[in-house]
Write a structure and sequence with these properties.
Elements lengths: L1 H27 L6 H21 L2 H26 L7
Helix pairs in contact: 1-2, 2-3
């Protein structure tokens, strides 16, 4: 029962990212992916990956592990871009 709860929490985190993205886009009146989207993606992905490993589901494991790598890479790229000095040339 604990594992089902963990899987549901992971799915809730993963689904919440779309709500966050939708609200951010509505506020900007344009499509926008906020950094919180990627953090929720990682949190949900890791939680679901743990559940997939418990279930020994290779399809689920492959999908979630690939996703977690991509979400982490996006966060790395965002942080790298934020640490770069802004040039006057634009």
């Amino acid at each position: 029962m604990v594992w089902i709860g963990l899987g549901l929490v992971g799915q809730a985190l993963f689904s919440a990212r779309f709500i966050v993205q939708w609200i951010a886009s509505e506020r900007r009146r344009a499509s926008h992916v906020p950094v919180a989207f990627w953090y929720l993606s990682i949190a949900g992905g890791i939680t679901l990956l743990g559940y997939a490993v418990y279930r020994a589901d290779p399809v689920f494991i492959l999908g979630q592990s690939t996703g977690v790598f991509i979400y982490a890479r996006n966060l790395f790229l965002i942080r790298h871009a934020q640490s770069q000095p802004v040039s006057a040339e634009g």
